[in-house]
């Protein structure tokens, strides 16, 4: 359908259902719109700041029969970040008309006699076209013979409204009037079904999506306006984890190396912050650049067996305690989306504070 949705009054549900009757008539287009929405949610856009808007007739691309934009609300207002066009069979139909070769897929029918199709084709007045275009008439007739139903229907509308339509082929321009061509509709028994493949074209503006992620993910800690952070989903956070020794005590170094090497083997992007600042200040630095999790090596790691360390969630600032050998795998599963922080909290004990304050 080409009837637009009012851009100032988008649907409350930003995720259009596949079977939204009269709005998205093509279920494949609806499927792609759904996948686009799920992708945008996965990479960190806010569902309250995403909507889909259908193109109006006066902005529809010449190749599209329907088109939807995913739009993101930013400090600049609503901006287009993804376009999804139903190109129908436009591309192959153009090639077919230009080359005069039908570009179709063929599907043999098991019972051809019982299968009927309403056929639409041009019915040229060869005499009138011959008188008007002489030796070039053959080019016009060949062009009319390979036109598809969509194109014929469009030109039929022009014939009805203006009494003529024009086309170009082989470098020649032809203008045909009602006395030169008409449109014929009839039924035909098919032995082979001819299918012109259709195209759905999603186009993602990666830069705009990234900017939207930054805006939608920016947060300020409650009660402390100086502490800001990015709440990137772990799947897209540049660093999945920080490894932070509690202090510069050399007893922590072997555990930091063990964790870092294990993270590297698993392909988990991480950073080691062993600077001299307090652990709270280093947490804040990690949060500012959107690091999803933080592992802290403390004196309980050194003094107790099995050796454990804490794992901190950036958004909630809650921590659990788990064995050092387990932590890289936990972070890896959190980063690829196969594990949630809520599941981690249910499985591992919540960390309240270390029990030892120096090496025993």
UniProtKB/TrEMBL annotation:
Keywords: Aminoacyl-tRNA synthetase, ATP-binding, Cytoplasm, Ligase, Nucleotide-binding, Protein biosynthesis. One of its GO terms (cellular component) is mitochondrion. GO terms for molecular function: ATP binding; glycine-tRNA ligase activity. SUPFAM superfamilies: Class II aaRS ABD-related (SSF52954), Class II aaRS and biotin synthetases (SSF55681). It is found in: Cytoplasm. Residues 240-331 form the Anticodon-binding domain. The keyword Protein biosynthesis applies. One of its GO terms (biological process) is mitochondrial glycyl-tRNA aminoacylation. PANTHER family: GLYCINE--TRNA LIGASE, GLYCYL-TRNA SYNTHETASE/DNA POLYMERASE SUBUNIT GAMMA-2. This is Glycine--tRNA ligase-like.
């Amino acid at each position: 359908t080409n009837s637009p949705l009012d851009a100032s009054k988008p649907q409350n549900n930003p995720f259009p259902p596949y079977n939204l009757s009269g709005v998205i008539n093509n279920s494949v287009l609806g499927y792609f719109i759904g996948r686009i929405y799920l992708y945008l949610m996965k990479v960190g856009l806010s569902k309250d700041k995403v909507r889909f808007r259908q193109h109006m007739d006066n902005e529809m691309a010449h190749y599209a029969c329907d088109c939807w934009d995913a739009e993101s609300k930013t400090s600049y207002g609503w901006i287009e970040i993804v376009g999804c066009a139903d190109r129908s069979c436009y591309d192959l139909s153009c090639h077919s008309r230009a080359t005069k070769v039908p570009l179709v897929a063929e599907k043999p029918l098991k019972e051809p006699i019982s299968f009927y199709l309403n056929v639409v084709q041009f019915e040229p007045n060869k005499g009138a076209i011959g008188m008007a275009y002489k030796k070039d008439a053959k080019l016009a007739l060949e062009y009319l013979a390979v036109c598809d139903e969509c194109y014929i229907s469009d030109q039929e509308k022009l014939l009805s409204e203006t009494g003529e339509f024009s086309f170009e082929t082989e470098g020649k321009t032809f203008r045909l009037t009602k006395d030169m061509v008409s449109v014929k509709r009839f039924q035909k028994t098919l032995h082979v079904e001819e299918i012109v493949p259709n195209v759905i074209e999603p186009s993602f503006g990666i830069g705009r999506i990234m900017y939207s992620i930054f805006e939608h993910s920016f947060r300020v800690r409650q009660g402390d306006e100086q502490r800001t952070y990015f709440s990137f989903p772990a799947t897209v956070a540049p660093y999945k984890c920080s490894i932070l020794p509690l202090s510069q005590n050399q007893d922590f170094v072997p555990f930091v190396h063990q964790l870092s090497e294990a993270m590297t083997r698993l392909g988990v992007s991480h950073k080691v912050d062993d600077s001299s600042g307090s652990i709270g200040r280093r947490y804040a630095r990690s949060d500012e650049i959107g690091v999803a999790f933080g592992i802290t090596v403390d004196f309980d790691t050194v003094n107790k067996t099995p050796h454990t360390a804490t794992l901190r969630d950036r958004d909630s600032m809650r921590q659990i305690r788990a064995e050092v050998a387990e932590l890289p795998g936990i972070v890896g599963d959190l980063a690829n989306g196969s594990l949630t922080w809520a599941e981690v909290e249910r499985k591992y004990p919540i960390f309240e504070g270390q029990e030892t304050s120096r090496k025993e």
